[in-house]
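U., I forgot to send this yesterday:
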Amino acid sequence: MERLYIVCYDVRDQRRWRKLYKAMHGYGEWLQLSVFQCRLDAVRKLRLEDAVSRIVKQDEDHVLIMDLGPAESVQVKVKSIGGSFEPVRNDAVVV
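Result:
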């Protein structure tokens, strides 16, 4: 079963930030600077956590992975000001 996650990060080094940004595209859709929404099953979530852990420096950077609930039933309430928002769809993602 897939769950919907919001992943946001604060990475101090630009090289690590770019590397994490590129890695995140394999797991979800970019929302805005340093924020992605991801629809993941348990295995892909573990892979995401592993990829993130390999990129960030835990004593300098900060990554939040927020679980919003089951992807099929979660009712995301978003107020978007100045741009559009579309919840991530259940499409295949090529990694």
